[in-house]
């Protein structure tokens, strides 16, 4: 008796395993659904390459928007790029490190003015960041307890951060005008605190005006970040501290500040970078010719580049500023990470 292809022929050995899901011995609808869910990439690409494909558009945009102009600026810093070669900067002769030597020659007029601008910017950044963090921390702590009108106050506190920078600074410029400004109208005309209307946008007062506007714009950001961080502290911790007899200041010192220390480390770094690089506020407030007391380095580099059309020298100062910020950031991250490891240990 012979058998045909459609007869009762026993399956060959291993056919059940091979007919399943790749030798696992499983078959049926569940195995087919499992196999259908697995993404298969063509060629040699495996599942490990899929996240990199998703990141590729962002990396390309980052390269085009940030890294490419940065590289071009570094190349420009090694050229004698003046107004004579602005129509085709590729023909500008190479100057080597001459632009950098002029920038760091603090005995010369250009180097001396750059050093003065750098010191003013450092002082402005320390004062502005310190006051912004202090006000933001105080407001965040005070807004933790529930009371009537808390939501309205939080919204009012965030108003300076929500306003467009151009509208806010231009409004401040009108407020600080000597003859028609609202501040002099109150201080001099109404209260009679001064013999004559003071100048707020020139002289030494320009520095304090710049600090006030910077703090007014930045402290709501600190308030917002710290308010979110304080939500993660359980209320039971404060209740236990009150039972143990801890006062308000002891609770802030022993509970609040240690709990938000990681957030504060990032917050201070972000505020430092924003404030040190701030260009919009001083430029809109003073224009191209900022007073010596408020000559921030961002406006100084802009004026050296576009005022004298010496883009090679301006690019060299920008590169030096970038290196300084990278150095400060690296040192800050090293010290904060060491402090965090010491606490964990």
TrEMBL record:
Main location, first listed in the record: membrane
Biased composition (Gly residues): 16-28
Annotated GO biological process: transmembrane transport
Classification via Pfam families: BPD_transp_1
GO cellular component entries: plasma membrane
Transmembrane segments: 50-78, 118-143, 155-175, 206-230, 259-276, 311-335
Top-rank lineage group of the source organism: Bacteria
Keywords, ordered alphabetically: Cell membrane, Membrane, Transmembrane, Transmembrane helix, Transport
Topology term for the membrane: Multi-pass membrane protein
Compartments it resides in: Cell membrane
Region listing for Disordered, in residue ranges: 1-42
ABC transmembrane type-1 domain mapped to chain residues: 118-332
Family named by the database record: Belongs to the binding-protein-dependent transport system permease family.
PANTHER family xref list: ABC TRANSPORTER PERMEASE PROTEIN, INNER MEMBRANE ABC TRANSPORTER PERMEASE PROTEIN YCJO
Annotated protein name in UniProt: Sugar ABC transporter permease
């Amino acid at each position: 008796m012979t058998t045909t292809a459609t007869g009762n022929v026993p399956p060959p050995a291993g056919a059940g395993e091979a007919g399943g899901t790749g030798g696992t011995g499983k078959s049926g609808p569940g195995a087919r659904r499992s196999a259908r869910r697995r993404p298969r990439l063509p060629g040699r690409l495996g599942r490990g390459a899929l996240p990199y494909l998703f990141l590729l558009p962002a990396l390309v945009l980052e390269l085009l928007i940030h890294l490419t102009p940065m590289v071009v600026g570094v190349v420009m810093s090694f050229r004698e790029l003046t107004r004579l070669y602005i129509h085709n900067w590729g023909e500008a002769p190479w100057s080597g490190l001459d632009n950098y030597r002029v920038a760091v020659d603090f005995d010369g007029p250009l180097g001396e003015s750059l050093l003065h601008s750098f010191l003013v910017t450092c002082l402005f950044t320390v004062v502005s960041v310190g006051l912004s963090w202090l006000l933001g921390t105080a407001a965040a702590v005070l807004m933790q307890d529930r009371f009537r009108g808390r939501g309205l106050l939080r919204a009012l506190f965030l108003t300076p951060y929500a306003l467009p920078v151009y509208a806010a600074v231009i409004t401040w410029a009108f407020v600080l005008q000597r003859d028609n400004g609202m501040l002099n109208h109150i201080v001099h005309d109404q209260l009679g605190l001064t013999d004559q209307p003071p100048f707020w946008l020139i002289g030494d007062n320009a520095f304090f005006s710049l600090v006030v506007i910077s703090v007014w714009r930045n402290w709501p950001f600190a308030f917002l970040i710290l308010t979110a961080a304080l939500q993660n502290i359980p209320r039971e911790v404060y209740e236990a501290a009150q039972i143990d007899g801890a006062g308000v200041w002891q609770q802030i010192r022993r509970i609040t500040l240690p709990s938000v220390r990681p957030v504060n480390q990032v917050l201070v770094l972000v505020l430092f970078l924003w404030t040190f690089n701030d260009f919009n506020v001083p430029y809109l407030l003073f224009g191209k010719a900022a007073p010596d007391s408020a000559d921030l380095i961002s406006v100084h580099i802009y004026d050296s580049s576009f005022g004298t059309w010496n883009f090679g020298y301006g690019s060299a100062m920008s590169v030096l500023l970038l290196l300084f910020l990278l150095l400060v950031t690296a040192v800050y991250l090293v010290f904060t990470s060491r402090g965090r490891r010491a606490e964990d240990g």
